[in-house]
Design a protein that fits this description.
The protein has 298 residues and is of the alpha/beta class. It has ten helices and eight strands. Strands 3-2-1-4-7-6-8-5 form an eight-stranded mixed beta sheet, with helices on both faces. α7 runs parallel beside α10.
């Protein structure tokens, strides 16, 4: 492991996640830090379930900072506040439904010492009560799973539930504050970073974390409909095409609207079938985004 010393800010955001936040905090308390200086920043996005009070009253093994919005402002506002409060040169972004392995920081530091990148994506194992969807989410060819350790990654796979980013990047690239609803804010940031600093995102596969209580397939599709209807339409047109893959799908077309409405329901009915399950899951994800998108178009 690297002997270099770093100042690290762990930025945790949460909203009404009292059921999972204790697991997140307990895992952070078990982190091995070697000779690194670490602070933990919790930004609460207007919770009403006691999440903020729990963090305030919990003892941490690191310097602790916290802030609570009076009302819900969305993930972008929460992360921007965390970045503003952070003193570290490296920022570890986590959500309050993530449990980290004790060597996570040491693995990130090892990757930093071996590369000259600005951002590092860690591995996330996802747990859901929907076992079919859980299998898809953890597929070896999906996200960070498909890369070798210290390999450059596609910008679409830099996910902020477990990633480390050099703070200086935020001097020139920031989150889009217009993206107030579900989804797209991480994608938008990573896309802009890729445009300005290509090949500066790296897989830190051994920086392991677990996402607990992931919504089931149907609930996740609801969230993607919201994304398609709100944040998706605010993304750069080239990024929109990257998301849906085919530009023609973004044209105004009543036949497409009808098709993807139909596919949405078919995928919910059939995704648990053997052999075709993964393909159906992927089609349902795309259909949900476009179902939301067409609400604003037709």
């Amino acid at each position: 492991m690297s002997s270099d010393s770093y100042n690290i800010s762990i930025v945790v955001i949460g909203y009404n996640t009292l059921s999972t936040l204790p697991n997140t905090i307990n895992s952070i308390n078990r982190l091995k830090v070697s000779n690194h200086n670490v602070e933990v920043i919790y930004i609460d996005d207007g919770s009403t379930d006691g999440s903020y009070e729990y963090f305030e009253n919990t003892k941490l093994n690191f310097q602790k900072l916290n802030f609570c919005f009076k009302n819900n402002h969305g993930r972008v506002a929460a992360r921007l506040k965390g970045i503003e409060m952070a003193c570290g040169e490296w920022l570890l972004f986590l959500n309050s439904n993530i449990v980290v392995e004790e060597n996570l920081l040491l693995e990130y530091v090892e990757s930093i010492s071996m590369n000259n990148a600005y951002a590092y994506g860690g591995s996330v194992n996802t747990i859901s009560n929907d076992l079919i969807f859980q299998k898809y989410l953890n597929h070896p060819n999906r996200g960070i799973n498909q890369y070798k350790n210290n390999q450059n990654i596609n910008y679409q796979h830099l996910i902020f539930n477990n990633c480390m980013i050099n703070k200086k990047i935020f001097n020139t690239i920031t989150f889009n504050s217009k993206l107030r609803y579900y989804g797209g804010e991480e994608l938008d940031f990573a896309y802009k970073m890729h445009e300005k600093h290509p090949n500066m995102m790296v897989a830190s596969k051994n920086a392991l974390a677990t996402r607990i209580n992931h919504p089931n397939y149907k609930k996740h599709l609801y969230r993607l409909i919201e994304f398609g209807e709100t944040n998706f339409i605010l993304l750069d047109s080239r990024l929109q095409i990257d998301v849906v893959r085919y530009k023609f799908l973004l044209n105004k077309n009543i036949l497409f609207k009808t098709l993807f409405n139909l596919l949405y329901f078919i995928c919910i009915l059939l995704y648990k079938l053997p052999l075709i399950g993964n393909h159906i899951v992927k089609i349902g994800l795309l259909a949900s985004i476009l179902r939301g998108y067409y609400k604003n178009k037709l």
